[in-house]
Design brief:
By secondary structure, the chain is mainly α. The protein is 77% helix and 0% strand. It has helices at 2-65, 67-73, 84-110, 122-125, 129-144, 151-157, 160-172, 179-196, 209-235, 241-263, 265-271, 279-301, 306-310. Helix 5 packs antiparallel against helix 9 and helix 7 (160-172) packs parallel to helix 9.
């Protein structure tokens, strides 16, 4: 009897040991499978993010490089038949509508969350009027500068944005740029300028002082507004970009409406809001709207340093 009891105990111990080993093996297999799954998910997410950045950057390059041409083409007999303030207003209104449409799509697919809710708290909304008014002034100057320069000259002068953005990036965001980065800025600016020079644009060196001053002011406005907006957007990285865009664009709509009342009220009342518009004008407005959204995506997922080098 004693012998049988000892054998039974040994058999029980062997079974227990096998069960433990089996459970351990299963746990290790499960852990390895989980780790592999997480690694694959992380790799897929990184690849998706890289694709998004590439698509947005390519789109921004194509859109911004055609802006000057569309503005010049929208002229008739060397002047704008339409009110530039209404064109600016239309751009901001279209961007606002596109952001709302994207938000509705997000709400339908993922529901309303803290990150995609259109909150109206003062702390969140109060930061957007400053970049909105800066963008309005810069965009209006963009039309008037063509009284002094042509499209190639504008592209050359626009490279001032690269230096101004680098300086303001360091001052506002407190991000230290290395000597290599500064050298890259200078070389990039020189390279873009050299690439855009051609025999037909020799007169660029004789651009009136008004053109140069407007270009410098535009560069400062664009750089400051861009870096300031990036600081706002990246302050809450989890915040849905379309919510942030909506508040920026809604203030743009308000300020441009004020500009219409101040500058073109009589023309709009007598001739209509869309007087002088052509197919090219509509294309220009669509181009500016899509460019603005692409810029915000670059700020969200890359940084503002990327933006000037795309133009």
């Amino acid at each position: 009897m004693e012998y049988r009891k000892v054998k039974d105990q040994e058999s029980y111990d062997d079974l227990s040991q096998k069960d433990v080993e089996s459970l351990s093996g299963r746990s290790l297999s499960s852990a390895n499978a989980t780790a592999t799954g997480l690694s694959s998910a992380g790799g897929a997410k990184g690849k998706s993010s890289w694709k998004l950045k590439s698509v947005v950057t390519l789109a921004l390059t194509l859109l911004t490089s055609s802006q000057a041409i569309l503005i010049v083409w929208s002229k008739r007999a060397g002047k704008y038949e339409y009110s530039v303030t209404t064109a600016n207003f239309s751009v901001e209104a279209l961007k606002c509508l596109l952001s709302l449409a994207a938000l509705f799509r997000t709400w339908n697919h993922h529901g309303v969350t803290d990150d995609n809710r259109l909150t109206t708290s003062f702390d969140e909304v109060s930061v957007y009027p400053i970049p909105a008014i800066l963008y309005m002034l810069k965009n209006l100057l963009q039309y008037y500068i063509f009284a002094y320069v042509d499209a190639p000259a504008y592209q050359i002068l626009k490279n001032l944005n690269i230096i101004s953005t680098g300086v303001l990036y360091r001052i506002i965001l407190k991000k230290k740029l290395s000597e290599i980065q500064w050298a890259a800025f200078i070389l990039l600016c020189a390279g873009c300028t050299t690439a855009q020079l051609n025999p037909s644009s020799d007169h660029v060196l004789q651009t009136p002082i008004q053109g140069w001053m407007m270009a410098i002011v535009m560069a400062l406005l664009s750089g400051f507004a861009g870096v300031y907006t990036e600081a706002i957007i990246k302050k809450r990285p989890s915040r849905n970009i379309n919510v942030q865009n909506f508040w920026l664009y809604i203030f743009g709509v308000i300020f441009n409406l004020v500009a219409i009342c101040v500058q073109d009220y009589d023309a709009v009342m007598n001739k209509g809001f869309f007087h002088g518009y052509s197919f090219i004008t509509v294309l220009m407005i669509l181009n500016h709207a899509l460019s603005g959204i692409a810029v915000s995506m670059v700020m969200k997922y890359a940084d503002n340093i990327v933006k000037p080098t795309r133009a």
